[in-house]
Amino acid sequence: MSLWLVIFASGLVTFLIRLSFVGLLGQRAVSPAVRRVLGFVPPAVLSAIILPEMLIRDGALDFSLGNLRLLAGLAAWVVAWRTRSPLWTIAAGMLVLWFLTALR
Amino acid sequence: MLPLTRLSQFFAGVRAEAPILIGVMPFGMIYGVLAREAGIPAFQAQAVSAIVFAGSAQMVLTQLVHLGAPLLVMVLTLFVVNLRHALYSASVAPYIQHLSKGWKALLSYLLTDEAYAVAIIHYKYLDTLPAPAEPAGSSTGSRPEVRLAHWYFLGAGLALWSSWQLSTALGIALGAVVPQSWSLDFTLALTFIALVVPGLKDRPGWAAALTAGTVALLAYGLPYKLGLVLASVCGVATAALVDRWSGAPAGERAAP
Description:
- The complex is a heterodimer.
- By secondary structure, chain A is mainly alpha-helical.
- Chain A has 5 helices and 2 strands.
- Chain A has helices at residues 3-25, 32-38, 41-55, 68-83, 86-103, and strands spanning 56-57, 60-61.
- In chain A, helix 4 packs antiparallel against helix 5 (86-103).
- The radius of gyration of chain A is 20 Å and the shape is extended.
- Chain B contains 13 helices and no strands.
- Chain B is an all-alpha fold.
- The longest helix of chain B has 32 residues, at 6-37.
- In chain B, 73% of the residues lie in helices and 0% in strands.
């Protein structure tokens, strides 16, 4: 089986999924109710990515103070809330993570 | 203030995407290394990044190629791994529906987790801006930022695309030059925290975040990113219910 066939088939599948609703919707008007529900997708998806990154360590839930990513993530959360700046949030989170890692 | 042009919006998108690239570059390098270790020739390993352009899916694909899985198995697996992109597609569709087919195809091709996050937060920010103070009967009826928002999306998408190609090439040529102990992968989660926190203002938003986060933790064992899809759907459904019950004023509820 040609590797090129695999690559193009994979690319096509990925592209078609990303195009799916954009293509199906076309120019049809979207009702305000549907728009409002779709507005909940970003907080849902982003939180579903963030929480496991903070709380799953080595394949298991870790709520302990020894979980440095949890502590760094909480610090970043506060900074994000106060500054609304991705750069400050990353700086705070990484500095806390590196500092605690060095202490341990 | 600088005039709002296509180019200024494009580079605003590039700038907004920039912090995410810190976390993406090591990931791209790891993909390059794994692809070569799986026996994929350098040129084709790079072509996967250019044609498929989906980090997690490429990692899975690399494994399946290494195992010699049948084509149908590979395609079905990639379909499942990429299922979450259908959610992103639904989420951005109303904002880009007025564009030409070429634009829709281009932006869909660029619709990764990282570009989606930056683009949708920008679109939601634009939703909060008041209508333009133009005289009634003006031909356009929308703000220039809104009319040019797809250039912002394109800037974010191409910034990610370029760094993905570059980091893949670096990984293929040099190996993973960034040590794992630097934990740069965590910057992705941190950027997403910066994107999600300022938007958590009302009860439905919190319900979406808390439900999706909790389900994502419980469903973490599910393979192929299915936990993420399940968590997101539960989060959106809960938010819609809370929205209905919490009795927001009708006018507010109708706002886009």
